[in-house]
Amino acid sequence: MPTVLVVEDYPPCRIAAVRLLQHEGYTVLAAASVQEALDILASAQAVDLVLLDLDLPDGGGQAILDALCSQPARADVPVIIISGSGTCRLAAEAHARLVRQRLVKGQFAGDGLLQAIQRYIAPAIPA
């Protein structure tokens, strides 16, 4: 079963993404901060895709992109940035190899998120 790391500090958005992905059969790891995401990435847990909000309370998501690039086993993990700010484009350009897509908060629904994820990892079998 594919594993998605959801990095989002706003609880309603994080909870909604986690529930949607779990309902679709994905294994979901959730982080509300840069540090939580870095701890997950430093562990041996498999991560097949990262949904990343760049505007986090303890720093920018850029640190998470840098961590992915610095770990050979995770250097090809696809990242979908979900953000409401202009930093989205800059981070995507800086990490073009990892960032596969950018979604703007408030401009997509659950089906759009699932379609984006399924472009890069296999669909899960719903639980």
Per-chain topology:
Elements: E1 3-7, H1 11-23, E2 27-31, H2 34-42, E3 49-52, E4 55-56, E5 59-60, H3 62-70, E6 79-83, H4 87-94, E7 99-104, H5 110-118
Parallel strand pairs: 1-2, 1-3, 3-6, 6-7
Antiparallel strand pairs: 4-5
How would you describe this protein?
The chain has a single domain (3-118), classed as Rossmann fold (3-Layer(aba) Sandwich). Helix 2 packs parallel to helix 3 (62-70). It has a 5-stranded parallel β-sheet, sandwiched between helices. A two-stranded antiparallel ribbon has the order 4-5. Helices cover 38% and strands 23% of the residues. The chain has helices spanning 11-23, 34-42, 62-70, 87-94, 110-118, and strands at 3-7, 27-31, 49-52, 55-56, 59-60, 79-83, 99-104. The model has no long low-confidence stretch (mean pLDDT 83). With 127 residues, it is α/β, with parallel strands linked by helices. It has 5 helices and 7 strands. It starts with a strand and ends in a 9-residue tail after the last helix.
Task: Name a few traits of the molecule.
127 residues, Rossmann fold, two-stranded antiparallel sheet, globular
